[in-house]
C-alpha cells in the first residue's frame, strides 16, 4: 500500500504508523517521527504539509522534543494526522514519493537513530488488572480461599508509581538494594535483591487531561487514550515482600520501569478489538461500558544470559486476558476528581493468562522460586541474574501485515558495592 516497502513480518506496517521521539548521530536534536518499515518519517521536516482543520494552526507540535503537545490536541487531531499520513505514504500519492529532495530529508534509517522516551511523563499509575495474575499471587501468599481481595472484582486496583525512573528500551537496569527479611524469625537484612523479577505489562499514554474535580466519564474515556507501549515493570520481590504492608509497593518497584519507544495509536489497534471479559459481579454503573475495548495483542518475553548464544522464550501471553479495560482504568482514576495530564502513563499490571506458559512474571513461572525455569543449554532461572537481558515484544496479526510495538529491552547490571 505504501511506496516505502515493508516486510510482512515488520512491526511497523503501513497500517501501524506509531509515533516516537528520535535523534541521529549527526543531529542530536530530539524530533518526533513515525515508524514505517525500517524507516522513520521525520514530522518536523514535513510539518508544513499538515493543513487540515485541526492541525493548520498547530503545525508547531511537530517541532517539539516530546509528544505531549500533540497528545493534548485530542482525538480529532490524532485522527486527522493518521489519515493524512496514510494518504501521504500511499503508493499512489506523489507529494512525498516524487519530491526527491524533501524525501531525502524526511526519511531516516532506524538503524542510525537513537530512541528516547516519547513523552515527558508527569505521573505514572500502575494497575493490577489481570485476574489470572492476581489469583496466582494471592494463592502464593494467602492461599486459594483468599486469593482475590474483596475489592478486586469491584474496581480496578492500582497504585501510584515513580515517573522519574521510567526509562526507554535499551537502558541498563541496576540491581536494587534494600531491606529484606528472608528468615521470618530473624530481623531484616540489607543487601542486593536476590529475587529480581520482570513484569510483562502494557501501558497507555493519556491525551487531553481533565480539570481537577471533574471526572472523565466512561462514555468519553476513549477520547483521552492516545496510544499504547510495551512495559517491563521490574520488581524486587524480596524487598517488596518485606515493605509492602500496609501501604503497598515502594522501593521494590520504583528503581526502574522500561517502556518501548514507539507509541501505537489506538486507531491502529481497533481492527483487533475483541469483546470485553464478562465481569461478574457486574461493575457499578460508572464503570460499565458495552462497547468492546479489549485487544488481541500477542505478547512474548525472552531472556538471554551472559553465557547464552541466543535468547530463550519464557512467556507467551496476550493482552486480551485482561479483566479490567483501559477505559475502566482511566474512568476509575478520575472518578474522585483526580486530574490527569497529557503524557501521563497508565499501566495494565502484569499480564498473565490461564496457562503456565502465559504467566507474565518469574514469580509465577517459578512459583515463588519453588521450581526452575529452563532456558536451555543447562541454563536455568528462578529469578534474574546479573547480565541477563530481558526482551518484551508484541504485535497484532493482520492478513499479511502486523501492527507491532518494537522491542522493550533491558539488561541487569550488578548492584553498587558499598
Which key terms come to mind for this protein?
418 residues; alpha+beta; eight-stranded mixed β-sheet; 9 helices; 16% helix; globular
Short description:
By secondary structure, the chain is an alpha+beta fold. It has helices spanning 68-72, 75-89, 94-97, 100-106, 131-142, 237-243, 266-269, 326-334, 362-365; strands at 19-24, 27-36, 39-42, 107-109, 113-116, 124-127, 158-160, 166-168, 173-174, 177-180, 189-192, 196-197, 200-206, 225-232, 235-236, 257-259, 264-265, 273-274, 294-295, 298-304, 312-318, 345-347, 373-376, 379-381, 389-397, 402-413. Strands 6, 7, 8, 13, 14, 16, 17 and 22 form an eight-stranded mixed beta sheet that branches.
Could you say which structural class the secondary elements and strand pairing correspond to?
Answer: alpha+beta
State the major sheet.
Answer: 8 strands, mixed
The percentage of residues in β strands lies in 25-35%
Number of helices: 9
**Radius of gyration from CA coordinates:** 22 Å
How much helicity do the residues have?
Answer: 10-25%
* Tertiary shape: globular
Poorly predicted residue ranges: none
Between the first and last Cα atoms, what is the distance in angstroms? 58 Å
